[in-house]
Task: structure prediction
Amino acid sequence: MEEKIVIIGCGNLGKSIADGLLQGNFLSPSSLTLTKRNTDSLQRYADQGVQVTSDNKSAITDATLIILALKPYNVLQVLESITPVLKSNQLIVCLATGVELKDLHATANREVGIYRAMPNTATHVQKSITAICTQNHQEEELNRVKRMFETLGGVLHVDEELMAAVTVLGACGIAYVMRFIRAMVQGGIQIGFSAEMASTIVKHTVNGASELLLQGDTHPETEIDKVTTPKGCTIVGLNEMEHNGFSSALIRGIVKSFEALDK
Ligand SMILES: NC(=O)c1ccc[n+]([C@@H]2O[C@H](COP(=O)([O-])OP(=O)(O)OC[C@H]3O[C@@H](n4cnc5c(N)ncnc54)[C@H](OP(=O)(O)O)[C@@H]3O)[C@@H](O)[C@H]2O)c1
Result:
């Protein structure tokens, strides 16, 4: 059975998910509904046959799966507003950082499957890693939620207490990697490449490094050993980065992000 999905609060992340689901042929455009108060920025979806509306209640009428992609401060209020028309066979997936399952259940105030999920913006290209957590789930329902996110990349089922850490490593992680890529491109320009050529080399190198680990299931240090000749240029450069706090800066940044999220 094809899911009928509604994305309520379809901003940046909601659109990334809509794009990934459509590109991955998870559902046909007519089985997808997107909502936000001002729908102007959703016109390109309407042009493809996706239903677009600012009426959250009518949007969920035939939905099998409802994704709440709202900002955290909007989630409970919007959930409360749709509860009169919620059906017990509908599944809710909330993407908002920090909104806990117990509050979602208390607000929905009925027997309904509720999931929290933390993807990243690479859902747009079906390369996200998405962590999912839930309480008292039925296996078949969990599998439906997993199947949807598998169209958008990798999926992990975690305990709720790890959701904040997943937010930092997986969702904020996109920004850390982007900054790393930008710095490598700047280095590339200094040693002689045009910005465009440096960017092409770095994007492919980062992609290749990631695929080596994903496909080979090896450890980064094993791959580093393969390219570091004694007294060679790779180890000289790597050690210089470490003397300047490369690993330490990343670890400390991740911990600071985590602490900031906790406040
Ligand atoms: N960005 C990420 O990498 C990422 C990753 C994982 C999780 N998240 C979580 O995803 C959520 C969304 O983040 P975002 O960056 O996509 O935010 P965003 O771009 O602001 O999207 C939220 C959308 O909700 C809409 N909205 C507000 N009130 C509404 C209502 N009553 N009914 C329907 N739509 C409403 C807003 O549009 P209108 O003003 O037009 O209504 C807005 O476009 C956040 O909770 C965040 O914690 C983000």
Q: What stands out?
A: The radius of gyration is 21 Å. The beta strands are 5-8, 32-35, 51-53, 65-68, 91-94, 113-118, 128-134, 153-157. The domain at 166-262 is CATH 1.10.3730.10 (ProC C-terminal domain-like fold).
